[in-house]
TrEMBL record:
PROSITE patterns: HTH_CROC1 (PS50943). GO terms for molecular function: DNA binding. InterPro entries: Cro/C1-type_HTH, Lambda_DNA-bd_dom_sf. Residues 17-73 form the HTH cro/C1-type domain. Pfam families: HTH_31 (PF13560). SUPFAM superfamilies: lambda repressor-like DNA-binding domains. It comes from Brevundimonas aurantiaca. This is Transcriptional regulator with XRE-family HTH domain.
Amino acid sequence: MARFVPDPHVLRLGEALAALRRQRGLSQAEAGARLEMTSQGWGLYEAGRRPGLFRPDVQRRLTGALDSTPEALALLAAGGPDAAATGPAAGLEARGRAFSGASIPQTHRLEVTDDALSPWADRGVVLDYRPGQPRSGQGCVILTTDGQRLARIFDRSAADGLHVRGVGGLEGKEVIDHSRVAQLCLVTARHEQ
C-alpha cells in the first residue's frame, strides 16, 4: 500500500492553523471542543493529514473556533507580515515530527515578588520563561500591552480572555482580556533562591 504523503501546501496550512491556535492559548483538545471535535481530529488538520483544510467552509469553521479568519490563516501559511507574531512556530519546516529552520526562543527571567503563587512559587523564586503556549496548570508569564509582566498559573483560553490563577493566592482566579495580552509565555524552570 502506498504511504500517504501530505501536500506541502496543506502542511503549511496545518502549521499556520497550529500557530493561530497557540496564539489564542488553546490546546488541541480545547480548540477541538469548540467544534465538538476530538483533539486527535484537530491534530490531523494541523499535521496536514486532512486535505479538507483546502476547503473554504472548513477553513471558516476551524479559524472561527480560534476567533480568527481564513484570511489570517492564508497570510500565516504564506509567511506574511503577521507570521512573526506566531512566536516559535514561525519559519518551521515540517518533516514528520522533526523540525528544521527554527531558532531557539530566548529565555527570560522574572523574580516573584509576592506570595500569590504559593506554594507553587514563593516570594524570591526566579522563573525562567519563553514565548510559547502553556498547558492547563502550568506556570505562565503574561506580557501585557501596558508593559506589565504577570506571573500566573494558566487554566485556559476562551473567547472572553485568558483564564488564570494566582491573584491573591492560587485559588484567586482572573480573566485577562485578549486585547491586554501582548505575548503569552510559558514557564520553563523555577529557581529557589
